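Lecture notes, structural biology module. Today: joint structure prediction for complexes of two components.
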Amino acid sequence: LFQPCQKMDCLSLELVASLAGHQDRVWSVAWSPKGDFLASCSGDKTVRIWTRRAGATSPPAAAAPSAATITGNDSVNPTTCAGSNTIIGAQQQWYCCAILDQCHSRTIRNIAWSPNGKALATASFDATVAIWELAGSVWEQVAELEGHENEVKCVTWNPDGRLIATCGRDRSVWIWESLPGREFECVDVKQGHTQDVKAVRWHPAGELLVSASYDDTIKLWNYDGDEWVCSQTLGGCGPGSGHSSTVWDVSWDPDGQRLASCSDDLTIKLWESRAAGAAPGPGRLAVSGGSGGYGGGGGLVPSRPDLRCGTTLSGYHGRTIFSLDWGPTGLIASGDGEDCICVFGQGDPEMARVVLRASEEEARQGPAGTNTSSVSCDGGDERRGGGGGSGGGDTTEVDPDDGSGASGPDADAGVSALRDDGKERLGKGSTGLRPGQEGQPWGLWTRVQSAHDADVNCVRWNPAHPRLLASCSDDRLVKLWWLR
Amino acid sequence: MVAGIAEGRELGVQKGYEIGQEVGFYAGCIRTWRALQAKEPDLVTDRMERGLAALEEMIRDFPLYDPQNESLHDNLERLRGRFKVVASGFGCLQDYYPKEAAQASWSF
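The predicted structure, tokenised, for the full assembly:
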């Protein structure tokens, strides 16, 4: 039944931390914009914020992997990872640094960080959304958004932090504007879906909102100056046009050109602009050099979406796919009802492994003395000039635990030499580690069976450390994985 | 066949009544808000004014007496959505349909 993993032993997801504390199923996880904090929310009506101890490096583990010791709020000793790789071997001391509670009267289903990392929004089954801000070292609730008739399923900030979108079981999508003085005003309410709306996500350029629903469709919304209108509906018009069951999650690729969706119909679909299909070269996305914006050169124009299904990944999941995330590396992670986590990539996983190894080498051999050895609570990952990408990219993959503090232009040069084309990437924030090869067919690169002891509800790649993946589950745990 | 027509009429009457009731409710709310605005003009922000005006227009143009109108349901949905925006602005969200009791129902 299942399509096999191509070259299964090339890549793997290594468990680096198992975080316990929630008293009920964990529904969602969200990384802070700088990747230094992870927020998780649960049926226990709380949000927990996790971070890594500053300066936490320890010698690589020499022994075989041992079972993780799980304690409550205390620092967790994660599974030790055997092997000689310095980056992976260092133990990662994650702990719960904050608990947000006493707010919602029911399950908290979803959380989202504001783009500046200073605020959190929580969406609850109690039909409200709460906005929290960090005052000193304490999170306090500063606003409440009421309006949904019943359970709110998802909340998300747009890229400039002005707007929040929410959706819920009442079949509507709400758009709120953030005003001075922590005021929020409802801008629009979109009915259109005929069933429960499971997820909403903004396009990285911000002008486009995507919603996914129990009614099997995906809708795209744009602002026409007066109100938000549905500019495209994907699926729902009979067989062959889209998903044939509930769409649970959607995610944009790092360039904002393609959309991935996952569904109860056991498939992942990748949607791309019709204009991109017309570009020269088989399966290539139209790429324009150095414009640094979205929508140049025949790709997707966010204000006028024209998506069609380009690829369907089927045969890899045996149960509902509840979550997916298209990470900064161009790889897609998914979590399903069979307790598995999968990672999909384009092209040859052997080549990808070479790319990842090269990046690890560069990181190890880089100039000493440039310090990135600690993750402070202010968000300590350093930003270096991106190597082979277009103007906007400024995040390089750096693991604070490696102590050597390298990467940057050298690593990027190494990486881009291994890409099958040296073309500049369209879009912002899209440089850095790209183990896959664009234009090549998609395949399953690794699968962790029994990643959790129950349904995997959410998977999310870290925005600053793109090989770090967070997952959460009905088994009440949050787990962190490293792609190697 | 005869039974089908009878059932159809019954359903039609019921649905028609529901739609009329909903649109009428919105119209009543707007009338009330306008009356309040007349006494206290500061109550209504620019955005809410735009919303009220849009609602009034939508109700005026609503095909209440044209049940075969293709856009009837789309119009109703737009109306419903816009009403919620304005009601939210006034801070008095009265759902037309009564809120379900907040029991611990299963939801995903």
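Point to remember: The radius of gyration of chain A is 21 Å.
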